[in-house]
Design brief:
The chain is built from seven helices and no strands. It is an all-alpha fold.
Length: about 140
């Protein structure tokens, strides 16, 4: 990729502003809704909204003229997203456990970020060793 292509990709467009605004509005709604209902807020955030939005943005921004290639790119994105989500799942059980045990919020986040990274690399290792799936 040459400098001009990179500059073109990194230059914000009106569509980029719309994407940012819509994404920010979703996060704002979820955080405001949490003040009313933890369960409803958690349900909304558990939905793969960001993945769905990303796939919509990918579909509309793709410069690939071949529809089959565009579809394959989005399918591949969804497939790898599944594998990347798996190591994050324990975090949603460990964070509440640690917080309820009296650990500080930022310490809890740090420990869970490290744990998630370790689980991610463990998953990469096991998938590469025992399957044909290669994440990295």
């Amino acid at each position: 990729m040459d400098k001009n292509e990179l500059l073109k990709i990194l230059t914000p467009s009106l569509f980029d502003a719309v994407k940012i605004l819509l994404t920010a509005v979703i996060i704002l709604i979820v955080t405001k809704l949490q003040l009313v209902s933890d369960k409803l807020s958690a349900l909304l955030i558990a939905l793969p909204l960001t993945s769905i939005l990303a796939m919509i943005w990918m579909r509309h921004e793709s410069k690939v003229p071949d529809q089959a290639s565009r579809i394959e790119s989005i399918a591949s994105h969804a497939y790898y997203t599944f594998w990347f989500v798996l190591p994050t799942m324990p975090m949603f059980l460990i964070i509440p456990w640690m917080l309820r045990k009296g650990h500080g919020f930022y310490f809890t986040l740090l420990i869970n970020a490290l744990l998630t990274a370790a689980l991610f690399w463990l998953l990469v290792f096991f998938l590469k060793k025992f399957t044909s799936i290669e994440l990295m």
